[in-house]
Amino acid sequence: MQRFARDDLFDLAHSLLTGGGLDPEKARVVADLLIRTDELGVTTHGISMVSYYLPELASGRMTSDGRHEVVTDRGATQVWDGNYLPGHWVMTHALDAAMARARDTGIAAIAIRRSHHIGCLSTLTRIAALQGQICYIATSDPSGQWVAPYGGVEPLLTPNPWAIGYPGGDHPVLIDTCASITTVSKVREHINSGTQFAHPWMLDAEGNATTDPNVVNATPKGSILPVGGMDHGHKGFAMSLMVEMLTQGLSGHGRVEAPDRWGANVFLQVMDPAAFAGAGAFEAQVDHLNAACRDSTPVPGRGPVRIPGDRAASAMAAAETQGIALPDEVLTRIRNCAQTAGLGFPAALA
Ligand SMILES: NC(=O)c1ccc[n+]([C@@H]2O[C@H](COP(=O)([O-])OP(=O)(O)OC[C@H]3O[C@@H](n4cnc5c(N)ncnc54)[C@H](O)[C@@H]3O)[C@@H](O)[C@H]2O)c1
Ligand SMILES: O=C(O)C[C@H](O)C(=O)O
């Protein structure tokens, strides 16, 4: 692990993306959110994603030009077509639109079809939470086949993450979790480093739980188990159906159309606590519960209790004073991209 200056990582991500054909403004938005993700400590979905986006830009599967289209607009609800534009850029516009409406109406939702990958969800929900709003985001990829429905063996679903961010005292509460027990990025990381998972998080095509990430490359293909694993995976499967319903059902596009390219359907909902019992009442309840949880007697080896978002807040504070920490596998990936593009690589901070 090494630490780097924020501006250096931003410049590298921006140069790689513009070099890959993205216009400078979209590249600025994407690079900024990717670096923010690394600052939050979610390094699987930070600058390393550039290495996956560049081939998408080169092939035209990630679109560079134009804007999203508004398909329907009923005030509190909208459907957008993201035209496979970079997901971070589409989501920045969707957040602005939903937050503005929620300030008026108390609640606003946008279902987006055909965006490209949106990265780390809590990097996005945090933006609204810092402005006093509650933000829910769910996403799925209707072309993805990584997770089997609980009780079946064929992978049909994606990790199907959902996240909710809200004001929580010193820093936002950032709940951000997949419906699967781990992510595609973690599976790729384990395959690349030749390591097994510590727990049986995968399912082979015969229906056996295994620690081996390589089952996703076998024929027939294995899968990632849902949250709850082999014995209690009905819980993850339920979450997965919820995410698919919100993202594909409400956007009116998905597995029925069977897209054959990497993409993202998204459901975004913003709620203004002031429009319910009032922002003060909301904060009093949230702060009280968070404090009670944090004050719990720690379970040996597990505690103390951490509220989701606490680790991100510490990572951000450390990034601010010491620079952004990147693990070796991310460095290798991004160094290769920089080398291929003929760009220099920033010096690590001492
Ligand atoms: N865009 C996409 O298609 C996509 C797909 C999958 C995952 N992702 C991103 O990948 C990232 C990782 O997802 P994940 O499911 O592996 O998350 P995870 O398992 O690392 O964390 C899940 C949740 O648990 C919380 N948490 C973790 N340890 C905790 C503890 N000890 N105590 C209290 N809370 C704790 C985290 O804050 C988070 O809210 C997320 O940021 C997600 O948005 C994106
Ligand atoms: O990489 C993907 O296709 C989805 C997601 O980012 C993941 O890591 O699971």
How would you concisely characterize the structure shown here?
The chain is of the alpha+beta class and 350 residues long.
What does this structure look like?
This is Malate dehydrogenase. Keywords: Oxidoreductase. It is an enzyme of class 1 (oxidoreductase). The protein has about 350 residues and is an alpha+beta fold. It folds into three domains: about 1-65 and about 320-350, Hypothetical Oxidoreductase Yiak, Chain: A, domain 1; about 65-175 and about 230-290, Ribosomal Protein S8, Chain: A, domain 1, CATH 3.30.1370.60; about 180-225, 2-Layer Sandwich (Wheat Germ Agglutinin (Isolectin 2), domain 1), CATH 3.30.60. The chain has eleven helices and twelve strands. It has helices at about 5-20, 25-40, 50-60, 85-105, 120-130, 185-195, 230, 235-250, 280-295, 310-320, 330-340, and strands at about 1-5, 70-75, 75-80, 105-115, 135-140, 160-165, 175, 200-205, 210, 225, 265-270, 325. It has a seven-stranded mixed β-sheet, sandwiched between helices. It has a three-stranded antiparallel β-sheet with strand order 9-8-10, with no helix packed on it. A two-stranded antiparallel ribbon has the order 1-12. Strand 6 (about 160-165) and strand 7 (about 175) form a beta hairpin. Helix 2 (about 25-40) crosses helix 4. The longest helix is centred in the first third of the chain and has 19 residues, at about 85-105. It is globular. Bound molecules: nicotinamide-adenine-dinucleotide and (2S)-2-hydroxybutanedioic acid. The site of (2S)-2-hydroxybutanedioic acid has 5 residues, from helix 6.
